[in-house]
Every structure is written in structure tokens, then in C-alpha cells.
Amino acid sequence: LELGWVQPLDKILPIRGFGINETATFITQRASGDGLNGFIALGVPNRTNNLSVYYDNHGYSARLSHTFSKGSQTATANQNGITNAALFSNDYKQLDFSSSIDLAEVLDKDGWPTLSFDIVNLNNDSRKGYFQFGNAPFTQYSPGRTYSLGLRAKF
Question: Considering the entire predicted model, what is its pTM?
Fold first, then answer.
């Protein structure tokens, strides 16, 4: 089941261009097939959520987005020679920021470029995984924050 909602806030706020975008996904898997545990889609969380707050008007754009993924099974049992030990991922949350200024629209100059500035993983979260039990860590990926400054022009 996936639910989505896009809500411009122009009728509520005195400044035009603000809004909210929300998406939630709920998945229920049932093991089936041959074998002891049957088959499931690995790495597919049973719950995800995306929430964005945005402003987009008069050549200015900014978006703050939060993504959540519930931990899930990522590999079947018998990993690394440990009987019945499957691999799982922990819950993951990420906050991103993106913005741009369309100089052609803001300065009323034809052919001027658009400046952009983005930050990925603003909250500096790490992806973690574990063997069968939460106190048996297996992996950790900590990419840190990524900053990006861009200039887009038409020739």
C-alpha cells in the first residue's frame, strides 16, 4: 500500500510557493515456496516514508527532505558459515537539502545561469547491518555529508 499527499500551502500562508509532499509505503511479505523458510524479497523494508517541505517561487527554490526506511532482511540464512544466521539492516533516516536560484528569472536577464546548492545526508546518518541479532554487527557504511555547488547554463 502506498499513500501520497502533495499539499501546496498557498491558501494557508501569506507567502506563495510553500508546500509539503508526503509518501508512505507499507509492505507485508509472506514467505512461500519450497524450503524451510520460503522466499521473500530481500532488502525490501516493510515501511518507508518520505517527507519534504519546499518553497518554489519567483526563481528561488529550496527543499528539505526526510527519508526513513525500516530495517529489513538483506540476505538469507547460513551466512559466513553461521547456521541459520541471516543478515539484516537497521532502520535508516536521511535528511537532505537542495536549493537553486534561477538568475535569469530573479534578475530578469535572458540566458543567465541557475545556481544550485545541495547537502546530502545532512543528519550524517550511517547505514548499519547485523547478523541475526541486533547485538551482532556486520556492516557499517558512513558516507558523511556531501556538499554540492552547481552552475547550470544553456548555450
Answer: 0.82
